[in-house]
Design a protein that fits this description.
single chain; 228 residues; alpha/beta; Rossmann fold; 6 helices; 9 strands; disordered N terminus; binds S-adenosyl-L-homocysteine
Length: 228
């Protein structure tokens, strides 16, 4: 006799998804949320998000949601990572600066597309853990440093592309200055407790063009270094 719906555990769709199935659904979710650039999708297929999420949340690495990481921070939602990367339109000779290393996931994706990636975070611990993951993955073109990213990275400037993964009320002046003419910066702007907008800033010969991309929610860009 067949039990009520939901009790028949012998059906295929009740079996836990294999890793390959979860990764396939992950890529499908990215496409359905607007990540359509083939190079970005290939980069995201190569970089295993499971390597950047630790502890109990690792099981959810292939879901399209932000997840907690150390120091009270979060690894961004994969579709947002994809849309930001796509908006940067990175070329293979580009040097990219990322503000907000966090888990290192976004930087590892940038490193698939750019010549050189610099990523900075205000937490020493996050930078150390991300560096360990980069070495384990054999990523040699990404350098992570502990510093307050609101001031950019003057020693390595100017940059072809800048990505900020924490929300500021306005684009920080030093970051605008460290963008090459023709360069693109993508960042969330707005107050941390309100709706923020992802914007794309393009530096032209005469100034800056601003495009609003979509509403987002990011942790705030905070001044000074963390104590861990
Ligand atoms: N890109 C990350 C997610 C970033 S979460 C990933 O792929 O996992 C935002 C990060 O910005 C946090 O780690 C936070 O510590 C960092 N951050 C906030 N303010 C900062 C600042 N002024 N300088 C550098 N990093 C900052």
């Amino acid at each position: 006799m067949t039990g009520p719906a939901g009790e028949d555990h012998g059906r295929d769709d009740d079996l836990p998804a294999t890793l390959a199935e979860r990764k396939m659904r992950f890529l499908f979710a990215l496409r359905s949320r607007g990540v359509t650039d083939a190079r970005v999708l290939t980069a995201m297929e190569k970089v295993d998000r499971g390597r950047f999420v630790r502890g109990i949340f690792a099981a959810r690495a292939y879901e399209d949601m932000p997840l907690p990481i150390a120091c009270g921070q979060t690894i961004s939602q994969p579709s947002v990572v994809g849309l930001m990367t796509q908006a940067l339109n990175i070329g293979p000779r580009d040097t990219v600066l990322e503000i907000g290393t966090g888990s290192g996931y976004q930087a590892a994706i940038l490193a698939q597309l750019a010549r050189r990636v610099y990523t900075v975070d205000r937490w020493k611990r996050l930078v150390r853990e991300a560096q360990e993951t980069f070495s384990a993955l054999g990523l040699v073109n990404v350098t992570a440093m502990t510093t307050d990213g609101s001031f950019g990275l003057p020693d390595q400037a100017p940059f072809d592309r800048i990505l900020v993964t924490a929300a500021a009320e306005d684009p920080p002046g030093p970051l605008l200055q460290q963008l090459k003419p023709g360069g693109i910066m993508v960042l969330p702007v707005g107050q941390s407790d309100a709706v923020q907008h992802l914007i794309k800033v393009t530096r032209t010969e005469r100034g800056f063009d601003y495009d609003e991309l979509r509403p987002v929610r990011f942790v705030p860009l905070v001044e000074g270094l963390g104590n861990e």
